[in-house]
Amino acid sequence: METKEIQKLIDFIAQSGLDEVNIETTDLKIKVKRYGSAPVVSVASAQSAPAPVYTSALPVASAPAVPVAAEPAASANLITIKSPMIGTFYRASNPETPAFASVGDEIVPGKTVCVIEAMKLFNEIESEISGRIVKVLVENATPVEFDQPLFLVEPI
Question: Is the previous residue joined to 59 through a cis bond, with omega within 30 degrees of 0?
Fold first, then answer.
């Protein structure tokens, strides 16, 4: 099934008012679920090797990958700590312990500021700069992309 055909199917389902549709053939498996106003689509091929499942929220053009936050005018002197990998961002090593770094905390090079879980491995992310945390840009337990800003730091 071509991408255009899948898009037409999604548009048809979106206009129909159905909340969930499953289509399965010998060559293709499509599952469409609507959460709120945007449908979520999973597509998999039935081949000898397991095919990846692609999921996207539609409409694609109106959904930014990374939320853009308005920064204060004095942000010119702020340094951004960015994610070195793709994974799930955690502010603490477990739910019962306090966050590694919170707004107002002073950090030094080598201090752990968060943990990013990737492929069942928990990677401690250490600061490479000295400063004070001004803003945490990512919610706890949310996915992050490579090079995504995590913290804004005011250098000391």
Answer: yes
